[in-house]
Amino acid sequence: MRHTVFCVLSVLITIVLALVSLRYFTDFWLLSLVYSFQVHLSIVCAVGAVIALFFRRHWYGFLMLAVATFLNIHGVIMLREFAGRTPPEDAPRLFRLMSFNIENDNFENGGRIADAILASGADVVDIMEAEPVFAQLPRLQQLYPYRIGCDASEKCDTLVLSKRPFVRQETRDIGELWKQRLVSVSIDFDGTPVDLLFPHLSKPYFDDFQADELEDLTAFMKPHTGALVVAGDFNSSILAPTIQHFLRGTGLTTDFPEPTTWPVSAGSFGISIDHIFARPPLLIRATSRLEDSFGSNHYGLVSDFVREY
User: Which segments does the entry list as coiled coil (predicted)?
Assistant: First the structure.
């Protein structure tokens, strides 16, 4: 009996470890979600290996434990790789950004979400799958008179609200799967011009569409050489090889550790698939998660930015 349990656990753990380890050989899109859960899966495998060793002390159990420990440590290292520099505590806040995928059929919570936006203190708000707050726009516009997206004549996906006027604004396609899923604006914050890009990427298991969208986003970023913020729903954690390649190629950084945003039911034990990135001379002082998901399948994020001098 003990031998059977050890064998069953060994087979299951080996399969999971093999799938996670494939990241070092291929960035195959079908495994992207597995890669995003590398830290979680490696912890589960390590616990499973310890249980297996309880049933039978065998060299293969120790090998599984060693591989799981390596994958866990390397996963944390990769998450830490893109942490931005911590700004001085006395550095004044330049602006606050809120980014939230509210889920497009979440109409019963539209009013509560609008209340949260108004109470957030954010200077700029990025709302994805924004149709549930369409009816709240007259109320939101009292505090955020400038907006792009959610015109009455088009389907509402990304809505960007601002307390300050846009120096430049544009909505464009990204990739080939969805239309009008990249909003680009420029805002002057007390003499500091900032470019803000708000993408909403497809899910990683939709073939290579997400990788193509990241290529388009990278190309679109090239003319933006100054202060830059990129925020939105990426549908992958930064452990996914495609996201890592994107960050390394663009020099973007984020807060560490990133708040987890999905799945909502997992709370703090989920993963971060919604991101707020910045590039010098901007630094992220802190990124926090909204305490309530307001009926969405994502948690929203709020980041405070300072200027590096």
Answer: none
> Which residue has tokens 């239309």?
179
Q: Using an 8 Å Cβ cutoff, are 151 and 169 in contact?
A: no
Tokens of 162: 């601002």
Alpha carbon of residue 112 to chain centroid: 23
For residue 267, what pLDDT band results from cuts at 50, 70 and 90?
confident
Taking the C-alpha atoms of residue 140 and residue 143, their distance in angstroms, rounded to an integer, is: 6
- pTM score: 0.92
Q: Does domain 95-307 have CATH number 2.30.36.70?
A: no
The residues with which 180 forms a beta bridge, in sequence order, are none
Half-sphere exposure of 65 (CA within 13 A, CB side): 14
Q: What is the CA radius of gyration of the chain?
A: 21
> For residue 306, what are the β-bridge partners?
283
pLDDT (tens digit per residue) in 202-251: 888 777 888 899 999 999 998 888 899 999 999 999 999 999 999 999 99
CB-count burial class (<10 Å; 0-12, 13-18, 19+) for 27: middle
How high is the mean pLDDT of the chain? Answer: 92
Q: What is the DSSP letter of 293?
A: -
